[in-house]
Each structure stands twice: as structure tokens, then as C-alpha cells.
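Hi Y.,

Following your request, here is the sequence exactly as I used it, all 436 residues.
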Amino acid sequence: MLPKLRDHLRDAGIRDTEIELTVLVGSNPLPPVVAVLALLPCKVHVVYTAQVKIRADRLIDFLKKKELKIGEQLPLSSENDPASLRVQFEAFFQAHPGGLHYSGGTKAMAVHAHAAWQKVRKTEKNYEPWMGNWLGSDGKLYFDGAVGFWSLLDEPKLTFGEIWNLHTGTRPACKNEHREPEKLAIARRIAQLNQQKLEEYRKSLPRIYASTVPVVALCEKPAVFLKVEAINLARYENFKEGNPAINALLEPTGSLHSLLFEETPGTYDDVVTRLDGKVGKMTAKRRCDAAKWLYGEWLEVWLADVLASITESDSSEVGLFDEVVQDIKVEDNPNALQIDVAAVRGNRVFVFSCTVDESKPLVKSKLFEARMRAEQLGGDLARFAVFSFYKKGAEAILAEVAAEGFAGYGDARSFAWEHFTDTEKLNTDLRQWVLT
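Below is the corresponding structure, written out as C-alpha cells. Let me know if you'd prefer a different format.
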């Protein structure tokens, strides 16, 4: 519990072990969870509406796993009837004295709970432990109350899996290829090639990732051109044995193998095998998956490694982030939600969408994607960014989004080619974003 808050409670004649806390649950379960973990009350009472019952249930399950005792639950009949809300709250607070955390509820819940709380507490020797919590611009967590506010220097920490489960009710499946030595080494090599020999590297890749994709049609029809967005429709035809589009890549003099491994030239299939680590028959799917990774997905691995390695300052050994995960999907439903890279500091998630594309429209779309994913994993508490190869200034993306009238991007960031090619600038801007 917060030292200053503990002293205040003792002055009021209340022992730590007697503190019960009522929390309001709205659309974001994270604020009440952080409050409970910071205050560690002897009992937690939970108030919610029917619309958010599923979130309240997740919160209760989470707190039980943390061995916190759950008290009463108050399912409100409606939050659109002020008189009814006030009556329900007053009766509940008279029966359950203690603290109130109101900033996790909806606005209607918070307003009426706060008013009811003050009315009920006026009879108790000026002790009003009503409180809300928020993250200040300095990155610290604050609680407010009747006599002022207290800063929580060591805020509660949550794992990415805990935050994910609180918001989605599912388990995350993370590839975390930045923790695989072979994949990471290849990703670092590709980053180096992109920084120094961008065109040479791209020309060595399967032509399937050019601006248009040559596809040999079935039944000996003339070659047609397929847009990149529709690549999944042609992936097997492009990578099957005997297809002219892949034959050249199977020659042992391929330049891609030499560029990546700086050793005896090898075939594209040799590259695929080193990437996926599989033995046995080579398939069109394996070749296609490798092509996608070699063209753009490697950037996620490289960025995750950078985020996992950066410290709070050049002279510090403390990591900027507590946890970094890469290529995250829902464990039992991989098509439901996907995030390129996410990092956690304390209980705040930072979401990154990655693309090697240089076109402004696509980079903007990845920024919009990052925002949507961040809102799913923390609401206003989460932060989001796009990492791209845009070469006309990282801030230009955010400036255009602001000029077009999109709200909610004040805390967003754009990291671009200038950051990819300048590690010092990347570290500086990351620290500035995360620490201030």
C-alpha cells in the first residue's frame, strides 16, 4: 500500500488489514486492477452493469488468481436511471465501508457513485477515502482523495499475457522469433543489407513481391499479372516445382543465399530450410511463407530485438521495457486478432505495426491498425506506433493524420527510415516517448 495513504488511514484510526475497496468496472478493466494491486485491500467489492459483466468476471478471476479476496458484487439494474443509481450506491456503501475506486467505471457510474459515497461518508469523522487513479505525464501512477493525492513510484507490473487476457478473455500465442538465435541472426543480416544494399537485396528475392507479380496461368495460358494484395490466391502456383517463376531460385548459384550467409552459394530451398528449421519434403507453402518473411516480416523480429535490448539510458542497465513479444495472435483463433510487436512497461502496453513499405497510404493504414489494436489492449492507457520505411520524414505521417481531422493520435508515434538507419536516433526517440 502507498506509504502516504497508509499514514492517512492510520490517522483516521483504520488499520491496513481493515481496508475494503469497492471498484467500478467499465469498458477497461485495467484501472481497477492496477488500483487493487497497488492498495492490496483485505476485500474487493465489484460494481458493474450487465453490459460489462464479462469484463467484471475477467477482473474477478484475475484477482482470485492473485489470492485477493472478493467480497460482494453489485450488478446495477441500469446506468440510465440517476435516481435508481443513487439509491443502489448509497445502500451498498452503507453496508460496505472502505475505499472507493471510481475512475474505472463509466461516467454515469462514477458521478453517482462519487456523490453517494460523499453523502454516506459525511457522518464519519471527516474520513473520505474516495479515490481514482491515473497515469500522469511523468509516467507515474497517481491516486486522488479528500486530502490530496499520492504518487505511486513503483506501480504494479503486469505481464503481457495478463493484460491480453483481461481485455480479450483469451490466451495469446506469440512467435517471439527475436528469441530464436538463427531467426534473429538472419533478421539482423537483412537489416544490414537493407541499410547498405537495399536494391541488391530486394532483387535477390522471389519476384513474387515486386509491384506486380508474374503468374504462370494453368493450361499453358499466357502469363498474367497479379497484384500483391491477392498473392495468397497464387501462392501455390508461384512456388510449385516446375513453375518458371521458381525454377531460377532453385539453382545453386542463387544470390540470396550468398547475401544472407556470406558463404558458398545455395538455393532458395536452402534458405527456406535454414529459416523454418524443418526437414523433409519442400512444399509450396514453406517457400511462400519464407518469401513473405524475407520481404517484410523480418522487420518485426529486428524491432522486437531492439526493444528488448534498449535500456532506460546509455549509462543504465535497466531495460526500457519489462517484456517484449512478437507476432501475437489469439491462441485458439489465430484469425481473430494479430499484433506485430508489443512491449510492456509496468502495466502499459506499447503496440507497434510494422511495414517495409514506403508509400504514405499504406503507412497510414498501419498506423490506424496500431491504434485499433492498442484500444483492444488497454484503451486510453495503451500507446501505439507505426514502424515503416517511409523516407520523407517520420513526423509527416502524424501531421497528415492530424490535418485530416483524426482524433486520438496525440500520443501516437511514427518511426521511419531515419530511425531504421540511425540507431542512436531510434533509441533517443523511443526513450523520449516512453519515459515522458
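Confidence is low (pLDDT under 50) at residues 209-234.

Thanks again,
Q.
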